[in-house]
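Apologies for my clumsy wording, but can you show me some protein sequence, whichever is easiest, together with the matching structure tokens, please?
=====
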Amino acid sequence: MDRDSAFELLKKYNKENFHIQHALTVEGVMRWYAEKLGHDVDYWGIVGLLHDIDFELYPNEHCKKAPEILKSAGVGDDIIHSVCSHGYGLCSDVKPEHDMEKILFAVDELTGLIGAAAIMRPSKSVMDMETKSLKKKFKDKKFAAGCSRDVIQKGAEQMGVELDKLFEDTIMAMRSCEEKINSALSDYENENK
């Protein structure tokens, strides 16, 4: 599946700006990590883009409806496994095995936390966010309470990195794609007026 087809599939099952933005953010972060680690940037990006394909329509069947949706679109078992692995221990029993799956597991919740912290900044951006300020938000359990700190911590452990390093890298990854996401989101909003 190419990126354009993956995005069209995402939009078929997701209409809310929040879900589109989250998918684009995770896509961008996964592409950044793939490039950094010397892996297939497009493949990692597509997995990031599709990781929550079933969440908006089927929140109570998250990671359970995804295989059906993705198979019907001709998506391969490797992508399906990766998509389902991001919910390991929460809504899926598919364990993250590969580097890409471990990173997806870690950054899914973390991008939500970083995004919430960015909105609180005067700039409304990650461009001027520092790891130190994110650590404060991470420790405040009331802030972005829906973002599981346990999952983020487990993700860092699975990746074999310190939490600070995961924070730093994911902030950098989000900086790398913020402008592109804002533009894509604007285009999406204009398409759906």
About this structure: The radius of gyration is 16 Å. The chain has a mean pLDDT of 96. The first helix runs from residue 3 to 13. The domain at 3-191 is CATH 1.10.3210 (Hypothetical protein af1432).
